[in-house]
Amino acid sequence: MRETAGASAVAGSAGSAGPAEPVLAAAGLTRTFRLRGGQGEVQALRGVDLTVDAGASVGLVGESGSGKSTLARIVAGLIRPTAGSLRLLGREVADASERRRRALSRDVQMIFQDPRASLNPRLPIHRTIAEPLRTHGLPARRAEVARLLDRVGLPARVAELYPHQLSGGQCQRVGIARAIAAGPRLIVADEPVSALDVSVQAQILNLLKDLRDELGTAFLFISHDLGVVRFFCERVAVLYLGQVMESGATERVFATPRHPYAQALESAAPAVRLAERRSRIVLQGDPPRPEDPPSGCPFHTRCPVRIGPVCDEVEPAAYPVGDGFARCHLLTPEEGR
Fold it and tell me: ABC transporter domain: from which residue to which, for each copy (predicted)?
């Protein structure tokens, strides 16, 4: 019961009180991949609970291989979970038919990491943006494409160009226009600015923030850059080896992280002011291989504050911490509050 209460606190607030159905509610979400040749399997996600309310922005952070992109692909309907529940707008979709998932795709769209690779090089931009409109039976006239281009800060003449004729930032703006075309309730943004020049990143982030506020669209925002997540997201979940280690309000998690892994991530983030810089926590070794995860706490093989056999043998519960939770044997129900 403690774990469920803590995990649900990952949700962000849509700005109005009330028991409204969340846009996204994942419970016990698990995804296992079989290795080539049938030699074992990899558990990319292990019992993830995650909630995103209407209009909220929830960030996912963690090292490469932590399961961020796998979770994004499941939410976007590109792959199915092995186990667990996934509810979109109150409807269970974990085991939904392909036809039903296609119908729901209007409500969930995705912005990809590599903007140029996400666009069909053979299609002019107007056809790329019009594609989701046609798919969902919406007007796909040139005037609507021009309106969407204007909404993301591009001139109407871009409609006649091809992806290779655009810069990376322009391609990402086209990808954003495509994502918002059908009026989705949730956008999954998978490292949407990491492939862009630093000077362009701020422009795209500001654009996404303006669109979020204007349209009321919820975001599941994936990034390895804590500064970007801190700017864009009200809440954050920290993933390690397919499991949420800590969650809560972004400012709380980054200001006073309680899980040792979250503390290490925060210590590695650049600080603008000298007074804000923390002593760097250097983790020893590499993350365990997903096909051979450790017993007990998944982080115990690299944890700088490991307290003994309990860390090696017993998986920690999700203890409440403020409006979120953290999984660590150093916490107790009383200390975590």
Answer: 24-266
In DSSP terms, which residues pair with 85 in a beta bridge?
Answer: 27
Q: Give the range of the structural domain holding residue 31, as residue numbers without chain letter.
A: 2-107+184-258
**What is the pLDDT averaged over residues 195-217?**
93
Q: What angle do CA 73, 76, 78 make, to 5 degrees?
A: 55
What number of other Cβ atoms are within 10 A of residue 106's Cβ?
17
pTM (predicted TM-score)? 0.87
pLDDT at 336 over 70: no
Question: Above 50 in pLDDT, residue 13?
Answer: no
In a domain, 248, yes or no: yes
What is the C-alpha to C-alpha distance for residues 133 and 300, in angstroms, rounded to an integer? Answer: 49
CATH number at residue 83: 3.40.50.300
Q: Structure tokens of 286?
A: 């590499």
Mean pLDDT of the chain: 87
In a domain, 28, yes or no: yes
Indicate the DSSP class of residue 259. S
- Distances from the Cα of 226 to the Cα of 62, 241, 251, angstroms: 9, 18, 11
Domain count, the chain: 1
- Alpha carbon distance, N-terminus to C-terminus of the chain: 16
298, part of any domain: no
| Residue pLDDT, tens place only, 66-90 | 999 999 999 998 899 999 999 999 8
Does residue 337 lie in a domain region? no
Per-residue confidence (pLDDT) for residue 288, from 0 to 100: 86
Q: How far is CA 272 from CA 16, 226, 276, 278, in A?
A: 33, 13, 7, 12
